[in-house]
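quick q for whoever's on today - can somebody do inverse folding on this one?? i tried earlier but teh output was garbage lol. tokens:
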């Protein structure tokens, strides 16, 4: 059997993860770029090498570029899950305290990632009809019925009775 297996390193400490997030903030415009052409990939690789050099210059445990990339991908995945659970817990019924513990590192990672982690919020449905007015119409004698008047993008009017 070949002895090609690399030895397992220590787990990343809280301080190391915090340092990685702070360094990632410096290189985020290059590393988090969505483009994948040759020059962009080369710039990303150089940014990771620079980040690794800076990371290892101040720490006690030397980390490889690959291990830093792996831990960053894991932190991104955990941040997305953390935000989803936080949102689910916040929107749940019943009140009371949140069941998700606050994690400072994952909060920082989700802030770095921006919309990629938080999703799109407050998106309005562009196909929805708009309520232009609500009015009451007399039906028989003294009785009235409320109706809602909708207007779609083609300026077509729709009437919807409101039953109480």
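ok took a stab at it. sequence:
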């Amino acid at each position: 059997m070949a002895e090609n297996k690399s030895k397992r390193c220590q787990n990343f400490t809280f301080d190391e993860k915090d340092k990685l997030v702070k360094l990632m903030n410096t290189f985020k415009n290059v590393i988090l770029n969505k483009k994948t052409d040759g020059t962009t990939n080369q710039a990303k690789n150089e940014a990771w090498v620079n980040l690794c050099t800076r990371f290892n210059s101040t720490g006690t445990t030397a980390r490889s570029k690959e291990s830093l990339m792996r831990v960053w991908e894991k932190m991104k995945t955990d941040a997305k899950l953390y935000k989803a659970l936080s949102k689910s817990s916040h929107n749940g019924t019943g009140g009371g305290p949140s069941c998700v513990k606050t994690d400072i590192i994952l909060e920082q990672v989700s802030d770095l990632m921006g919309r990629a982690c938080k999703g799109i919020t407050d998106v309005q449905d562009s196909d929805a009809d708009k309520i232009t007015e609500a009015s009451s119409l007399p039906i028989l004698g003294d009785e009235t019925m409320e109706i809602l008047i909708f207007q779609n993008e083609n300026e077509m009017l729709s009437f919807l009775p409101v039953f109480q």
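fwiw The two ends are 79 Å apart (CA to CA). also Helices lie at 14-31, 38-58, 65-91, 104-113, 115-118. so keep that in mind when u check it
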